């Protein structure tokens, strides 16, 4: 299929051909046509979305970070300079670029510069370390890696230089300043004359690769198109009341799907609102920003919402501008949810979403009992939701079962993962979320459990297999099993059961040794087991598998 040139007559602007990226499962043609016909997919790219807002509100403030303020016009200018700089370094449409940055303004400039070029950002979390980053670079065959010089005592600049040497395909390692200031690389990139903004990618192209929380040895990559993702952003804005007057506090990791699009930074940019970038969601970081900038909307994971509610600082700052608090990423208990309105004076919106697609919200005008006791309902009338038993048969309404979903912004397959896709999707394209839910007659979802082998540590997802594999690389380890155990604040924390090799000295190899070993392997800190227990054997199921359920239960309480 080819597309018509957009303004061939002028000879200047010519639409590119659709991008062909290997290892992506496309939406079925008839459904894609339907989503367009219904106005879900409007045929706009992320770069076009931003520049539409730039032309509507050039003087409006887009981003606030410390003393720094960027208007939409300034952000647009920065994007086009960076795009010129990145192009001069050889970055082209379809190239994958691993973006590994904390909550700093240049994140927006760089990501939109990549969008402008039609290059494909791979969104690493700031907490990721060598183990994850090396894998992302190799798996996505990235041409460039963008990171900060230092973060949390880690010399990422040195890591970047090292990876640039060891991975032949990696042509560029771009290092920006971790405190949001300038760096040699950003100064150089910004010194280019701005590129002209024009269509360099198509709305049906893969816009970026998000990362799955994962249940397997390595995180899977999630290919999202401009069309599908921006649909979820526009609808999120409508559902969450985001407009030009919104002042949104960004305190979760900026590249997480929740922060990006529910309604997140993209929601703000689409609506022409303001975002305030904070370093993290702790009350002492967030409350002064809310007071100073009259923040109207914030998004948190449940443990941070608890920290806000229990903080003595609550009465020391003026939080009266806050209208809505979005809480998601992990189950928010109804008992705590009940306290949000009376104690913070704002409306709670629960968000149950996934980087693979489907996002559910409680609505701003929902009854209080729905807001506190459900995780909301889907964004779109065309989100299909099924709740099934172990044999994929629909369970009676109101009973708990596996949540399956497909729809106008849910992927049809992970990137380059045909075998995994066989298991994660039904033959007719439903994504197996791995969540156990109940569905109310009016379509509200309550999450009651999980069937996937994943630990949800306060919203941060850990694939036990990834940690187990690294533990097995230690000489003294015979076998390892990692499970989630209940935790009052985080919901779950992680515990590793370890069987040492015969002859290994349990005095010499302790919990500290193994944690240090994982850290030295470059595993992100949140994946390092909170507890390590040495045992002689693992409980077994009838078919000889490790009985993880028994391991979780034996540590309950
Ligand atoms: C969000 O995205 P991911 O990809 O990090 O994690 C998705 C998984 C879900 O399958 C579910 O297991 C869990 O996180 N989850 C929740 C939840 N929100 C996410 N479990 C219970 N209650 C909730 N409210 O976490 C994410 C993506 C977009 C928006 C919000 C969260």
UniProtKB/TrEMBL annotation:
InterPro entries: AMP-bd_C, AMP-bd_C_sf, AMP-binding_CS, AMP-dep_synth/lig_dom, ATP-dep_AMP-bd_enzyme. Residues 466-545 form the AMP-binding enzyme C-terminal domain. GO terms for molecular function: acid-thiol ligase activity; nucleotidyltransferase activity. Its EC number is 2.7.7.58. The keyword rRNA processing does not apply. Gene3D superfamilies: 3.30.300.30, 3.40.50.980, Luciferase, Domain 3. Pfam families: AMP-binding, AMP-binding_C. Residues 52-415 form the AMP-dependent synthetase/ligase domain. Keywords: Ligase, Membrane, Nucleotidyltransferase, Transferase, Transmembrane, Transmembrane helix. Coiled coil: none annotated. The chain crosses the membrane at residues 104-127. This is 2,3-dihydroxybenzoate-AMP ligase. It comes from Brevibacterium aurantiacum. The gene is entE.
């Amino acid at each position: 299929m080819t597309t018509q040139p957009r303004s061939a007559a002028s000879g200047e602007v010519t639409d590119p051909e659709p991008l062909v990226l290997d290892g992506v499962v496309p939406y079925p043609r008839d459904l894609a046509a339907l989503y367009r016909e219904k106005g879900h997919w409007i045929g706009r790219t992320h770069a076009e979305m931003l520049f539409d807002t730039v032309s509507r509100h050039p003087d409006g403030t887009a981003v606030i970070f410390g003393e720094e303020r960027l208007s939409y016009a300034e952000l647009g200018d920065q994007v086009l300079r960076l795009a010129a700089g990145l192009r001069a370094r050889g970055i082209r449409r379809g190239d994958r670029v691993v973006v590994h940055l904390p909550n700093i303004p240049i994140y927006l400039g760089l990501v939109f510069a990549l969008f402008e070029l039609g290059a494909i950002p791979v969104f690493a979390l700031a907490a990721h370390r060598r183990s994850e980053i090396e894998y992302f670079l190799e798996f996505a065959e990235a041409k460039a890696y963008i990171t900060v010089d230092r973060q949390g005592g880690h010399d990422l600049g040195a890591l970047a230089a090292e990876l640039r040497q060891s991975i032949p395909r990696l042509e560029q390692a771009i290092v920006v300043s971790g405190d949001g200031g300038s760096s040699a690389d950003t100064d150089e990139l910004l010194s280019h004359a701005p590129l002209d903004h024009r269509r360099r990618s198509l709305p049906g192209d893969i816009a970026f690769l998000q990362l799955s929380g994962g249940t397997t040895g390595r995180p899977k990559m999630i290919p999202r198109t401009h069309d599908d993702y921006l649909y979820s952003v526009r609808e999120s804005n409508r559902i969450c009341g985001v407009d030009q007057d919104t002042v949104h506090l960004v305190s979760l990791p900026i590249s997480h799907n929740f922060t990006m699009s529910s309604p997140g930074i993209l929601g703000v940019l689409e609506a022409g609102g303001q975002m305030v970038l904070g370093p993290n969601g702790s009350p002492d970081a967030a409350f002064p920003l809310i007071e100073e900038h009259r923040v109207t909307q914030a998004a948190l994971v449940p443990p941070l919402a608890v920290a806000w509610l229990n903080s003595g600082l609550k009465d020391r700052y003026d939080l009266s501008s806050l209208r809505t608090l979005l809480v998601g990423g992990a189950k928010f208990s109804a008992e705590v949810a009940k306290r949000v309105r009376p104690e913070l004076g704002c409306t709670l919106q629960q968000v149950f979403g996934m980087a693979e697609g489907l996002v559910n919200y409680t609505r701003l005008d929902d009854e209080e009992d729905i807001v506190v006791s459900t995780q909301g309902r889907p964004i779109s009338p065309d989100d299909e939701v099924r709740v099934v038993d172990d044999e994929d048969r629909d369970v009676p309404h109101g009973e708990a079962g596996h949540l399956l979903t497909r729809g106008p912004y849910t992927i049809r397959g992970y990137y380059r993962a045909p075998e995994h896709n066989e298991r994660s999707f039904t033959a007719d394209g439903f994504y197996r979320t791995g969540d156990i839910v109940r569905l109310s007659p009016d379509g509200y979802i309550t999450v009651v459990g999980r069937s996937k082998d994943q630990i949800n540590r306060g919203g941060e997802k850990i694939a036990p297999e990834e940690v187990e594999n690294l533990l097995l690389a230690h000489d003294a380890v015979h076998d390892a099993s990692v499970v989630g155990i209940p935790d009052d604040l985080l919901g779950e924390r992680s515990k590793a059961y370890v069987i040492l090799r015969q002859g290994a000295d349990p005095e010499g190899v302790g919990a500290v040794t193994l944690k240090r070993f994982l850290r030295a392997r470059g595993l992100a800190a949140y994946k390092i087991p909170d507890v390590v227990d040495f045992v002689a054997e693992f409980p077994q199921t009838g078919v000889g598998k490790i009985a993880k359920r028994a391991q979780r239960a034996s540590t309950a309480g």
